[in-house]
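Worked Example 4.2. Consider the chain below.
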Amino acid sequence: MIDASAPRFGLPPSLWIPIAAASVEDIGKYVGRILRTVEDPKLGRVQALLVETIGATKEPNVPLWKSPLATQAMQQLYPPRQVWVHVDYAGYRQAYVDFGMPQPPANCFLDHVQNRRAIRLRNNSHPYLRLCPVDRRVNTSGGHRAGGEGMEREFLSGHRLPPSQNRIIYADPMDLTKMLNIPPGTQQLAGVRDTQKLFYP
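Applying the procedure from the previous section yields the following structure tokens:
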């Protein structure tokens, strides 16, 4: 199912990638079948989830699916199993391994695709976040003060946003660039500028 109330940035359907959810129930409804969870009885919440998903239907007119990145894109954007974690859960790396996911290489980060600090600035509107393994340089570029996430945090810290009506946050072009393991860049976000040509027919 698609959360029709959520922005999708003019992207084609095969690139409507959920990266944050308002609740565990929304993950089951909009993302996939929940296979396992890590729960904290003291806090009374689910901390991590292993989710089974189905792959995308590749639209033939979307450049990404005809590019040399197509295989990598399917593996990164649509792995058959995904790990989602609560924004405040510190044990996410161990949960990722305990769920039987491949051990990330030494130079790899488990990136919260939706920035955690930005979610907190939104009053934890969507506290469950998808993890995606990316290179250190991608994680550093995305989270830099002059990067896309830094600019998002600066904007949110100075604005009071109305309560969100959508249950899912879908990846925007910068998120997709990160998930493809491409540094998004800083200031003018050159990596996003160059990569988003693959996203739109």
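The longest strand covers residues 33-40. The beta strands are 18-21, 33-40, 45-52, 81-86, 108-112, 128-135, 168-170. Compare this with Example 4.1 before moving on.
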